[in-house]
Amino acid sequence: MKIRFIEPGNRPYKSTILNYFVYDRYIRTPSVGLNTLATIVKARVEDTLMYSESISRLVMEDILDADLILIGIFTFSANRGYELARYFKEHSRAVVVMGGLHASMNYPEAVRYCDYVLLGEGDESVLELVEAVRRGEKPEFPGLAYLSENGELVHTGNRKPPETFETIPDRTLIYRYQKMAGHNTLWGQVHASRGCPHNCDYCALVRHFGHKVRTRTPDNVIEDIRRTIAFQEQGHHRLLKVLWITDDNFFADREWAVAVLKKLIDSGIKYNFTVQARYEVGFDDEMLDLLKRAGFRELAMGIEFIDDESFALYHKKSTRQEIIAAIENIHRHGLAVRGLFILGADNHRVGIGDKLADFVIKHHIQGVLIQCMYFVPGTPVYEKNKDRLLHEDWSKYNGNTVHYPKNMTPYELQLEQIKASRRIYSFRRLLGALLHEDWLHKLLFAGEYFWHMSVRSDLKKELPYLKERSGRPGESRER
Ligand code: B12
Ligand code: SF4
Fold first, then answer.
1. Which of 169, 175, 196, 436 is the most exposed place for a label (fewest CB within 10 A)?
2. Which domains does the chain have, with CATH numbers?
3. Residue 23: which pLDDT band, with cuts at 50, 70 and 90?
4. CA-to-CA distance for 222 and 427, rounded, in angstroms?
5. CA proximity to 164, closest of 214, 213, 127
6. Quick check: 27 pLDDT over 80?
């Protein structure tokens, strides 16, 4: 039996000279989730391999004679995933299965392109699927969606998410990853827990992974960290030695987070780490001390908004004052803060880009990801705003303006994002970072300076389209 896992890119992989130096729009880290599933399957089926369009083109000659092709999609990669699924259905005899966040949340759409959609977390169900395909039988278990012979949508019922998920992804299963792993733009990643107790309106993750926080054992997490670093470093001379803990809310189970950090300190692993966090951790002095001792250099904080009205509108439990106080305390502990922000809330007006830039500069936030409000089917913001969407071209759901904001035009919103990025990543601030930041943040700022430049150039390409669509909601949903 031959099995191929495919991670589509937002667009097909294209090698550019820039990829060797900075984080540009074409290079992306391969999916840890899909890699985990490939590792689980490899234990049963020897001829298993994964491709990620983050780092390589797809070798079609190798894929087309597989028995089973599994494609994982997020919203921003859904269109490319559908295009590939359709191609594989037409050109191979393989059973084609889709999964991942977007396919799960939007399965009535995804089933139109493949044989089955495997819903939710695939760690357990993927083996049931493989066995059914091996036996040449139709898979029949909870957690599937497909179209019946007469074209009706079938959903076989929900299944409980796995309680234990200790598989350490085998990165050698990803085609060309070992060769590419030395790029400073490709950071090692470890995902140690799933689920979040909060309920922000725009968040697809709580709908996909649930509110219950489930964790891996601390020993298993440390072993994953050790192997990930070894993989990234083997045969390469990386300048940036950073590993990213990608959990959405690593500190949600405090006791567990403390246990992981203590084990990391005891392990003797010397590396730089970054982790995603909510602001509350900024008030937890013991945790901040442990983070510092374990090698963490910064916290990537999902700040999202800078005013209390937006927090309340989208049920994000934060206030501006709490965020500022948390940032100050994190800085006092010698850690940097990276900010993740959303523009285009219902109360945002022209000028929000400047306000955001002022906030970032004033509070010494050392790196940012800014995106316009995005709308994933299944989230409350999507349900509330589906009449206000400009289009459903998922490939543009990667930071661009995709809706009619309440208090400005789509064109104006896109300009606000460009303006904020330009001010935060100005040449003057680049020089400032090169002179005054520590070595890690010198390197990071320089990389991000070029990355933001390429993000802005993509955002600008959308401007003519957005200018044309600056009428009323519902006027045009065609692209
Ligand atoms: C690491 C990460 C990145 C990395 C790598 C992404 C990658 N290749 O996985 C980088 C930095 C490249 C990245 C970039 C972006 N990201 Co990102 N990222 C993440 C993050 C934090 C972790 C991903 C992860 O490892 N998850 C853990 C694993 C275990 O989960 P999983 O991948 O979903 O896999 C499980 C299941 O879904 C299922 N499954 C998955 N695939 C398949 C396939 C099959 C066939 C089956 C059966 C099952 C299955 O089984 C897996 C195991 O249980 C997620 C948040 C999150 N928690 O997922 C955001 C997230 C995926 N990112 C997001 C966004 C918006 C972006 C950007 C657009 C940000 C931006 N403005 O630039 C860019 C897009 C890049 C692009 N190509 O254009 C959103 C996507 C929203 C959506 N609806 O799709 C997320 C969900 C964050 C959020 N807060 O909403 N990201
Ligand atoms: S805190 Fe973060 S992960 Fe949790 S619901 Fe809100 S956005 Fe999602």
1. 436
2. 2-155 (3.40.50.280), 344-479 (no CATH)
3. low
4. 39
5. 214
6. no
Helices 410-424 and 439-461, packing angle to 10 deg: 160
The residue type at 293: R
- pLDDT of 475 > 60? The answer is no
Say if residues 214 and 194 touch (Cβ distance below 8 Å). Answer: yes
How far does the centroid of ligand 2 lie from the alpha carbon of residue 196, in Å? Answer: 6
Q: State which H helix or E strand residue 131 sits in.
A: helix 125-134
Top mutation candidate among 194, 205, 342 for ligand 2, by most atoms within 8 Å of CB: 205
What's the predicted TM-score (pTM) here?
A: 0.96
Half-sphere exposure of 430 (CA within 13 A, CB side): 14
Ligand 1 cavity residues, CB under 6 Å:
9-10, 28-34, 36-37, 54, 70-72, 74-76, 97-102, 118, 121-123, 126, 189, 191, 204-205, 246, 248, 369, 371, 376, 398-399
pLDDT one-digit tens code per residue, 339-374:
999 999 999 999 999 999 999 999 999 999 999 998
Long-range contacts, stretch 467-475, CB < 8 angstroms, 24+ apart: 467/411, 469/390, 469/410, 469/411, 470/409, 470/410, 470/411, 470/412, 472/404, 473/387, 473/388, 473/404, 474/387, 474/388
Pick from 402, 259, 281: which is nearest to 342 by CA?
A: 402
Inform me whether the pLDDT recorded for 471 exceeds 80: no
